[in-house]
Write a structure and sequence with these properties.
single chain, 191 residues, alpha+beta, Cathepsin D, subunit A, domain 1, six-stranded mixed barrel, three-stranded antiparallel sheet, 4 helices, globular
């Protein structure tokens, strides 16, 4: 049935009688529309995702050094507390040498090729340039090699910040939990 606008305006009393029913129908329709669109944008989590706390112990490779890590879903990439960062040339490529001490006082020296240089925007200062290396990280029983930028993080509580590039497709982060996983990766010595 098609109703013309002028006909609709001539009979406001009959329409007013049904306005509560119409309003309910519109609200139900909108609720269904938003619920369906919400499910499409946010699918349920995969069954194979592990739950991790917002603070965990992780191992970094090479070296199998255990560090305390903050899992940060707001950061795209990971960042590592590197001391005494020195860039040098090796076989025509830029490499970096740095040291890292974990919370137990164990010190390790690392050398790695620089993959790229990241520009980090800072809220209260000028942008900073940081060398980025490929680093192996073990969290629970998940080992991945990801890009990690190097920075003196001694002013922060945790030596490693793990970002989304590592977490995606493997972890859900429980903001109310800490230290739920123990690093347990078998890594080939030739890596």
């Amino acid at each position: 049935m098609h109703i013309k606008i002028d006909t609709f305006l001539r009979y406001p009393v009959s329409i007013m009688k049904n306005s509560k029913q119409t309003a309910r129908a519109v609200l139900v329709f909108l609720w269904i529309l938003f619920a369906v669109s919400g499910f499409a944008e946010n699918p349920p989590p995969k069954d194979d995702l592990r739950v991790a706390g917002w603070i965990e112990r992780a191992s970094i490779f090479p070296g199998d050094l255990n560090v305390k890590a903050k899992l940060d879903t707001g950061a795209k990439h990971s960042s590592l507390n590197a001391k005494h960062i020195k860039e040098f040339e090796r076989d025509g490529a830029t490499w970096v040498h740095f040291e890292l001490k974990n919370w137990k006082g164990r010190m390790e020296s690392f050398e790695a090729p620089v993959v790229r240089v990241a520009t980090i925007k800072q809220h209260d200062a000028e942008s900073a340039k940081r060398p980025v290396i490929q680093l192996g990280i073990c969290l629970g029983n998940v080992y991945k090699e990801v890009e990690v930028n190097l920075e003196d993080r001694s002013k922060f509580n945790y030596q490693l910040l793990i970002g989304r590039s590592y977490l995606k497709n493997s972890f859900l982060v429980d903001a109310s939990a800490t230290f739920t996983l123990k690093p347990n990766c078998r890594v080939n010595s030739d890596r």
